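Appendix B, Record 12. Input sequence as logged:
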Amino acid sequence: MPFQSPKTMMDFFRKSEGIWFIQRSVHHFDAVADESGESNLIVEVVAADDPRVAKICESQGVDPSKAGGAAQFSWQSNTKDFVYDSKYAAILVDIPDAQGRQGQLLRDRGYVENMPVVGRYWFADDGVLTINNEYERNQGEERCWFITDDFRVRVSTARLVGGINLMTYCSERRFITEQDLSAMVAHNQQRKTVS
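Logged structural output:
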């Protein structure tokens, strides 16, 4: 089946589900320690009727019945086994507009400031997702797109009143488990016996 870019937030969440190895380059426009490096991102799809979705919607004054679903994003160092820590996790709730290619994104924890935030998102015709978040003192913009089903790119900027103060580029590669690898080998062996 040929590669298709997701064009709705729930399709994006489903395509993102799993563990991603991230290589990150960060450029600060002021004297801050370099935050470039490597990490893991764990994405889990969350059903629209999950109690966490209703809680986030209600905290932002949004009717939970408008939620299309959600995803939990958890970050960790790539040098250790995954242990969930809410300090390094966020739940994003999709509130799609009628056509589904744009809408609101409710976050229980922002990535520029550690606070709940309501952002706007939209998908371009080529599948590039853009998310804008307005915080109390900052504005964040993030763009993400899939190159293949197992490789994606993410770029972001954070702006203060005086202008852009942070830019980030991430290349993200899906982590292949032993089970995934075994399934791929079995599939290829089956193809070999058929031909």
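The CA atoms of residues 112 and 140 lie 7 Å apart.
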